[in-house]
Amino acid sequence: MTDLSLRPPAFAGQFYPADADQLRREVEGYLDAASLPDGVDDVRAVVAPHAGYVYSGKTAGYAFKALRQLPDREWTVFLLGPAHRVPVTGVALGAFSALRTPLGEAPVAVERVEEMLAETSFYTRAARAHQPEHCLEVEVPFLQVSLRRFRLVPMLVGQARPKEVAKDLRGRLQEDDLIVVSSDLSHFHTYDEAQQKDRGLLDALLAGDEAGVRHGEACGRAPLTALMEIAEVEGWVPHLLDYRNSGDTGGGKSRVVGYASIAYTR
């Protein structure tokens, strides 16, 4: 085992508040404002957006409210997102003992990470890809408020085959494991164009149409389709909890980004 470091927050004060009390209040507010449809229980996975909270926090609140109702256990959360800033070959797991946010340290499931690195060639440490990446970090405060006890497996998906990732990850899932996929939807279209594109992708996702999702514009298409592969085999059912875009929340309507929250139930 290599020496492990603590990953400090890189986007506190930018994407979300740096003050712990303010951050907790904001996240609690998003969770309290979200309402779930009937049938969203025994949740095994969620999809949540990863923009600044002023834009996507309301939508993210739905996904993490679905996790908040789970029993109090020592959960292991496989947190998957796309590598935006540093090219990654395969899937980067980092080299961290914990991820810190203003709310404290979120421990990494170090032994699970070490097993993955030892057993499967497309997993890599690539810690430098994690340091400047926002897509996983912004989900961690929501997890810290939603789940009393959890450990993370942080996974940045780069040039990897979603089917291979899904096959490997499915073989590792245990009863106390959850999957969180971090992804935004279309980027920088007009409000109406974004709604049309995003609805097409979401309809494909809800129908289990992986080709339709691959042809959409979600930045997290690879982890999304990996989750869809797992869900198909496991018999998990997707539920769309919320959809909106930045034109509904904190910006104009000429160039928007789309956001959705989805829960998969058993």
Classify the fold: give the CATH topology.
Answer: Protocatechuate 4,5-dioxygenase, Chain B
Instruction: Give the domain tally.
Output: 1
Extended strand count:
12
Counting helices, strands and paired strands, the structural category is: alpha/beta
> Could you describe the largest sheet, including whether it forms a barrel?
9 strands, mixed
> Which oligomerization state do the chains in this entry correspond to?
single chain
CATH hierarchy class name = Alpha Beta
CATH superfamily: LigB-like
Average pLDDT figure? 96
Kindly describe this structure.
The chain is α/β, with parallel strands linked by helices. It has one domain: LigB-like (Protocatechuate 4,5-dioxygenase, Chain B), CATH 3.40.830. The chain is built from ten helices and twelve strands. The strands form two sheets. Strands 2, 3, 4, 7, 8, 9, 10, 11 and 12 form a nine-stranded mixed beta sheet that branches. Strands 1-5-6 form a three-stranded mixed beta sheet. The longest helix is centred in the first third of the chain and has 16 residues. The N and C termini lie far apart (35 Å).
Q: Tags for this entry?
A:
Protocatechuate 4,5-dioxygenase, Chain B, globular, 3-stranded mixed beta sheet, alpha/beta, 266 residues, 10 helices, 38% helix
List the helices and strands and how they pair.
Layout: E1 5-7, H1 20-33, E2 43-48, H2 53-68, E3 75-82, E4 91-92, E5 96-101, E6 104-107, H3 110-119, E7 123-124, H4 127-130, H5 140-146, E8 150-157, H6 162-172, E9 177-182, E10 187-189, H7 191-206, H8 210-214, H9 221-234, E11 237-245, H10 246-249, E12 256-265
Parallel strand pairs: 1-5, 2-9, 3-8, 3-9, 4-7
Antiparallel strand pairs: 2-12, 4-8, 5-6, 10-12, 11-12
Helix pairs in contact: 1-2, 1-5, 2-5, 6-9
